[in-house]
Amino acid sequence: MGRSIPPGELEWEVKSHYSFKETILPITQTLFYFTEHEMKEAEPERKKPAILFLRSCDIHAMKRLDQVYLNHGAEDYYYRRLRDRVKLVLMGCAQTCENGFCVSMGTNRTRDYDGAVQLVEAVDVHEEGMSWKLDSRWQELTDILESMELPEEEAEPAYVTENQVKVRLPEHCGPELINHPVWREYDSRCIACGRCNFVCPTCTCFTMQDIFYQDNENAGERRRVHGSCMVDGYTDVAGGGSCRKDNGDRMRFKVLHKISDFKKKFGYQMCVGCGRCDDVCPEYISFSACVNKLADMEKEGR
Fold it and tell me: Under the phi-then-psi rule, with left for phi > 0, alpha for psi from -120 to 50, and beta for the rest, what region is 294?
């Protein structure tokens, strides 16, 4: 379906600094309230349906989140009730973004959407500027468009075929890479701020917080809060120990989980190549460069 409308409210050229995941995984999410005698489930953060305009890599990221929260053991109830309220609209990418490597990860195109929009130049002499074409796979949207008697015109979302950044993935990530001294480089370079995790559309870690009210110390609420495998305290255990105290060990865990461990379990890579981690790192640590370094070391056998 197609029609000419002002497309100015959508940002077509710039990649979002943060991912979409806060709409279905709130940074802070109250799960339930409690008193001395009872517990009450918290209302969902968003009751109304929402439409998310996403790039192809982020729609692929949604698949990763669904895998973790819905298709791996028991469903996460709090994730499900927000996930069911969103529809996904694909925004085509006419050109590659800075630091993105979606082509290397196979996430540069997708058909898993409820609708797709593509920005095009107006061709009618009576029209000015730009317009969009819309491909609807959402029956409610299709019914609305048909009721408006809009001309049928299938949209073919644009997608990039080459990125400036190209990633070579190691095949095995065996003990020689896991125990390689290259990870010690990040002990000093990484400052454990966790920004890479918080902007990543596929990171799913969280911590729990029990909040007790000042006027009644026996009443309060339990919250789920975004966590990060890169920050201090996340792997602390009873007795004062820590599973990954050094920043290099945390970097190793994050990188290998994204490009190896997840794939061993589910059959596809966790990383979708959006490049946001490289965008936000204050120490200019490049995830893509790290992965390429691992692939080269594996190939050279060192």
Answer: alpha
Q: What is the DSSP-derived secondary structure letter of residue 242?
A: B
Distance, in Å, from the CA atom of 244 to the CA atom of 277, rounded to the nearest integer, reads 20
Q: How many CA atoms lie within 13 A of 177 on its CB side?
A: 25
Q: Which residue has the tokens 């969103």?
A: 86
CA separation, residue 118 to residues 69, 126, 215, 223 (Å)? 31, 20, 54, 39
Q: What does the pLDDT look like over 174-233, one tens digit per residue?
A: 888 888 999 999 999 999 999 999 999 999 999 999 999 988 989 999 999 999 999 999
Region for 284 from its dihedrals, namely left if φ exceeds 0, alpha if ψ lies in -120 to 50, beta otherwise: left
Distance between CA atoms of residues 178 and 250, nearest Å: 12
Per the rule left: phi > 0, alpha: psi between -120 and 50, beta: everything else, 224 is: beta
Max distance between CA atoms of the chain, in angstroms, equals 74
Q: Which of 137, 127, 139 is nearest to 157 (CA)?
A: 137
* DSSP-based helix, strand, coil % in the chain, nearest 5: 30, 20, 50
For 48, the token pair is 């109304």
Q: Residue 55: which of 158, 202, 167, 161 has the closest Cα?
A: 158
Contact status, residue 69 vs residue 79, Cβ threshold 8 Å: yes
Beta bridge partners of 89: 53, 115
pLDDT tens per residue, range 121-163: 654 544 455 667 778 888 887 777 777 666 555 667 889 999 9
pTM, two decimals, is 0.89
Distance separating alpha carbons of residues 214 and 260, to the nearest angstrom: 46
